[in-house]
Design goal:
- It comes from Nitratidesulfovibrio vulgaris (strain DP4).
- The chain has twelve helices and eight strands.
- The radius of gyration is 31 Å and the shape is globular.
- Helix 2 packs across helix 7, helix 8 packs parallel to helix 12 and helix 10 packs across helix 11.
- The chain is of the alpha/beta class and 335 residues long.
- The strands form two sheets. A four-stranded parallel sheet has the order 2-1-3-4, with helices on both faces.
- It has two domains: 120 residues, Rossmann fold (3-Layer(aba) Sandwich), CATH 3.40.50.1980; 135 residues, 3-Layer(aba) Sandwich (Rossmann fold).
Amino acid sequence: MKTLQRMNATKPAAAHSSTHALGVLAVLALALCLTMVTPVIASAADAPLQVSVSIPPQKYFVERIGGDLVRTTVMVPPGADPHTYEPKPSQLRGLSGSRIYFSIGAPFEDAWLARIVAAAGPSLSVVPMHKGVTLLPAAAPLHSDEAEHAEGKEHHEDHHAHADGHGHDHGTTDPHVWLSPMLVRHMSLAIRDALAKADPAHAATYRANYDRFAADIDAMDKKFADLFAALPQDRRRFLVFHPSWNYFAHNYGLTELSIEVEGREPSPRQLRAIIDLARRERITTIFVQPQFSRRAAQTIATEIGARLVDADPLAEDWAANLERTAKALAQATGR
C-alpha cells in the first residue's frame, strides 16, 4: 500500500519534469532557428546596393562614390560601340536585381532605355546623370567646312550631294559629356544623392566619398589647364577620327577636328582634301579609338607622315585615361 502511494506521489513530479524538458527543448529550438535566420537577415542588409550604368566610365564614377557598398553592372562592355550596341537577353534579365540605373545620354540609350526599364521592373529607378547639362553641338566633319574651302566649288557641290545621300546631320548634339572633368564633377552629384536615397544608412559615406572625388577632379582640372595654358593659338587644333573629345577640348581652349561624324567615312575626294588640310595644319598625330575602323585615319597618317595614337573615350579607368590623353594631346599640339 505504501509502495503504491509512493508511486502515485511521483506521477505529478514526473509530469512536471517532462513538461519542463519539453519547454527547454522548445526554447532551444527557437534559439536555433533564430541563430539560423539572423545571419540571413544580416547578410541581406549588408549586401552591396545593385546599380547599373550604360558605359564603363560611369562604373568608375559610381564606385568612387559608392565604394564597396555598391555593385555596378555595365551594359556596353569595353570595346563595344555604344552607337550600335544591342544588350544580350542575359543582360536584360540580370537587371532585375538593380535598384538604380544611371543613364548618361549614350547613343544606345535612345533605343534601349525603355526596354531596360521594362525588363528590370517597377523597382528600378532611372537617374539621368546628364540632366541639366548644356550639350555642345556635334562636331562637323573636317571635310564639311575647311576641306570644302580648300577644294573649291566643285568639292562643295560634291560634298552636299554626299551629305544628302547619307543623311549627315550636323545639327545634333554631342553626347560625350563624361570627357569633361568639371561636368563629371557636376554629374556625380546625381550619383551621390541617388545612392544616399536608396541606402540612407550610408548617406554620410557617400557624401564623404563624393567630396574626395570632387577634390581629385579639381586637382586634375587645374593640372590640365596648366598643361595647355602656354600653347600658342595656332597650335591648339588636333585631329581625331571619331569626334569624341569636344567637351575636353572646350574645357581647355583646344579645337577638335574630326574625319568622320556618326560613323561615316569620307569619300575619296574628301579624303584628299583632308590630307591637304592636315599638311597645312602640320598635323603629326591622329587620335583614334578602338571602337571604330582605323582605315581612313591610317590612309591620312601614311600620306602626311603622322602617327596614330589611341584615345579611348570609353576606358573604365577614367582618371588614368584622361591623364594619358591629356599628355598625348599636349605633345601633339606642341609640335
